[in-house]
Amino acid sequence: MKSFEATGKTYEEALLNGLTQMGLPSDRVEAEVLEEGTKGFLGIGAKPYRLLLRKKDTPAIRAEEFLKNVTLLMGCDVEIETEEQEEALRVEMKGDNQGILIGHRGETLDALQYLVSLKVNKNGKEYRRVTLDTEGYRAKREQTLVNLAARMAAKVQKTGRRMMLEPMNPYERRILHASLQDNPYVTTHSEGDEPNRRVVIAPKRASEAAK
């Protein structure tokens, strides 16, 4: 129900009646006064307040509603917090059994993030980059990848032989490339096709290292 016309003796009563019928809290609804009520004289000629209530439709609301439905189907009871930024939307899920929502190496979390992004940007008016996280997984994973990159780069520098890492998603590959982009001894690129695309760390040629 996206809109509903509600009536009541007062504005507050009409609003409460409408919210009850729509099953929504006040922060999810916009109210427009269609007709102001009047008390009349001794109750004669009294008119009720008429309000038109519209369900708000924002990126944060779409993300929250979608995730609540999906996580409920997954058997997870989560609390969802959103932070709207100028061109981005950050979503944090809190609760028990978050490991189910993360999945193996974050695969489930990445899939949910992709689906939320589709839902948030379905109208195509303003694109919002969505970041979905739980239990600080993104930051922990990023640090793990940065440490991995440093270790592998040191091995490549020592042996002079290139190393191919395990398949990773685009987000993880970007972290590896970024962490080594200023390394004076190695260079990185990706090889293969999705979902088996891998980061390759190779020694820089003498001419490149001298730059």
- Secondary-structure arrangement, i.e. CATH architecture of the largest domain: 2-Layer Sandwich
Strand proportion, as a percent range, falls in 25-35%
Let me know the number of strands.
9
Report the CATH C-level class of the largest domain: Alpha Beta
Continuous helix count = 7
Q: Residue ranges: pLDDT <50 for 5 or more in a row?
A: none
Shape: elongated
pLDDT averaged over residues? 88
Give the CA-CA distance, first to last residue.
63 Å
**Domain tally:** 3
CATH homologous superfamily assignment of the largest domain: K homology (KH) domain
CATH topology of the largest domain: GMP Synthetase, Chain A, domain 3
Main sheet, how many strands, which sense, barrel? 3 strands, antiparallel
Structural class: alpha+beta
Nearest-angstrom radius of gyration? 27 Å
Helix and strand element order:
EHEEHEEHHEHEHEEH
Neighbour order of strands in the largest sheet: 1-3-2
Proportion of helical residues: 25-40%
